[in-house]
Specification:
mainly alpha; 111 residues; single chain
Length: 111
């Protein structure tokens, strides 16, 4: 449906090894791994996702400007969401799924 290599900035395409399509496969694998990291450790995974989104925003702003500014703005909102998740996970001490399960078991049950 979408030719993903067109979303890659030309300067990035010049510095990465292989083709743009191969690089986008690697990007997809990294995004899946980042999602799993958020699932397993929200405190650290959210920071990884926020940094990843910052890199995507940089890519968007340098790809055929101003064609993809709307996508960069959307990703900025997602980055703010990832930062908010990090603040929440930090404030409530949600380090891992296991810690969340332990905290849930310790809460009194509603009558």
């Amino acid at each position: 449906m979408v030719k993903w290599p067109t979303y890659l900035a030309p300067w990035i395409n010049r510095i990465v090894p292989g083709t743009a399509q191969q690089f986008m496969y690697v990007v997809g694998a990294i995004e899946i791994a980042a999602g799993l990291l958020v699932l397993l450790s929200p405190r650290w995974g959210s920071l990884v996702v926020a940094l990843w989104l910052a890199a995507i925003i940089g890519n968007r702003l340098t790809t055929h400007a101003p064609t993809y500014y709307d996508i960069a703005l959307r990703d900025f909102g997602l980055m703010l969401g990832a930062i908010a998740l990090n603040r929440l996970a930090t404030a409530f001490g949600a380090n891992t799924i296991a810690s969340e399960v332990r905290q849930t078991r310790q809460l009194p049950r509603a009558a």
